[in-house]
Design brief:
Layout lengths: L1 E5 L3 H13 L3 E5 L2 H10 L4 E5 L7 H11 L4 E6 L4 H9 L4 E4 L4 H27 L1
Parallel strand pairs: 1-2, 1-3, 3-4, 4-5
């Protein structure tokens, strides 16, 4: 599974990236929202984990652009500045989940495992439909 990680805090970005790579995920990490948007237009990602507040642009813009490019890409919003309004807006725009910092890496890994399982079931379902 190919993951884009967008986090402006260098230590958090490095830590999460290392944990995800250890779990055998293909991870591209970015510290700036504009860089992430440019990469999004060039490459395909299965999952995007993005901070809400970023230099260059914000996580909601990344979410909107992602859904315009490929509505099947899953987006997880992470933030230390949670509000009810941003949570509701994120989910309305199609975010899969909304995590409050600090969160345990196990929480993120659990969400990713669930996404993988869901993807496998949907893929199997499509194969069965095509056989019928």
């Amino acid at each position: 599974m190919k993951i884009m990680l967008v986090e402006d805090e260098k230590i958090t970005r490095k830590t999460l990236s290392d944990i995800l790579k250890k779990e055998k995920y293909d991870v591209n990490s970015f510290g700036d929202g504009t860089e992430a948007l440019n990469a999004l237009k060039q490459e395909k990602f299965d999952v995007i984990v993005t901070d809400l507040r970023l230099p260059g642009t914000n996580g909601l813009d990344i979410l909107k652009t992602t859904k315009e490019i490929n509505s099947n890409t899953i987006v997880i919003i992470i933030t230390a500045y949670a509000t009810v309004e941003t949570a509701i807006e994120s989910l309305k725009l199609g975010a899969y989940d909304y995590l409050l910092k600090p969160f345990s890496p196990e929480k993120l890994l659990s969400i990713l495992k669930h996404i993988e399982q869901l993807s496998n079931v949907l893929s199997e379902n499509e194969k069965l439909k095509s056989r019928l």
